[in-house]
Input
Amino acid sequence: MIRDATERDAEAVVALWTEAYFTEGEGGRDAPYARSDFDATAAAAAHLLVAERDSEVIGVVALLAPEDPSRAVAGSGEAELARLVVASGARRHGIGRGLAERCATLARAEGWPAIALWSRAYQTAGHRLYESLGYERVLERDSVDETGFERLVFRLTF
Ligand SMILES: CC(C)(COP(=O)(O)OP(=O)(O)OC[C@H]1O[C@@H](n2cnc3c(N)ncnc32)[C@H](O)[C@@H]1OP(=O)(O)O)[C@@H](O)C(=O)NCCC(=O)NCCS
Output
């Protein structure tokens, strides 16, 4: 079941982000996520969704609206998908696809023309997922910051 996140999901969501982007995330986050990250994302995002199975939160994704200043790579008018994680023990069962598809449905319903997102080079499972959903790479928007942190940009246009 996919539903809107609530405050009660904070601990589980923080654990998912930490697992994927800190513990597994080579060269990614240098600190675990905290409750404040959940609160900030929940406050900023147009939609913060979780996937639940047997009363356990096993997936999460955020969809940022085109006017959201916390978008990192989306252009004018574009929504941004962020922080998609499925628990390592629940992957390859269509949960990530379900969360990303729900974001597309919501964006279309809002009348937003596109969803952009950024990903790390090693996040190849995500790349395959995005490509299977019709996302295309936007090479000219890729970036590397002064610390060597690379962002690969994908976009789905409606
Ligand atoms: C990326 C992620 C969210 C995918 O979630 P998931 O629930 O396992 O994905 P799904 O089962 O819905 O897979 C959908 C499609 O994605 C692709 N895919 C998913 N995992 C893959 C893998 N390990 N290798 C290759 N392709 C993969 C496949 O095309 C798959 O379709 P198929 O199963 O019919 O072949 C999950 O691997 C994850 O949380 N990874 C760590 C965090 C991360 O990298 N997030 C994305 C940041 S941009």
